[in-house]
Design a protein that fits this description.
single chain, 124 residues, mainly alpha
Length: 124
């Protein structure tokens, strides 16, 4: 593990101090992969196999936030089969970006016309 990378990520995201060194490092790998994909340094899609609890969702949130700092007009769609993950990502991104630009959909969603909302500039 790269302890410099772990220290840097912890400074960038102090709200995630509960993550272990390994989870912080893994989340950093995911965040960097997302950023590299958007910057054109990787040809997507990127598949990162990691076990449950390794920091994938946290890394995705970090990566999305990092990308939107550099490319604010980018639209991102985060897909997961789990409603809990959808709600977690929505809450974290809404807290940082606002609910006006973050959307979320799942089987229990109250939104009926997803096409209209997706066309309005929401980040999913």
């Amino acid at each position: 593990m790269n302890l410099e990378a772990i220290t840097r990520r912890r400074k960038q995201h102090p709200e995630c101090s509960y993550l272990s060194d390994w989870q912080t490092y893994s989340a950093g790998i995911v965040a960097t992969s997302i950023h590299n994909l958007i910057c054109g340094m990787e040809n997507g899609p990127v598949y990162i196999p990691m076990p449950t609890g390794s920091g994938k969702t946290t890394g995705a949130i970090w990566g999305i936030l990092d990308v939107l700092k550099d490319y604010p007009d980018t639209r991102i769609c985060f897909l997961t089969p789990y409603q809990k993950s959808v709600n977690s990502v929505f809450s974290a991104l809404s807290e940082k970006l606002s609910e006006e630009v973050v959307g979320h959909y799942h089987s229990d969603s109250q939104t009926f016309d997803k096409t209209q909302e997706l066309g309005s500039g929401l980040i999913d």
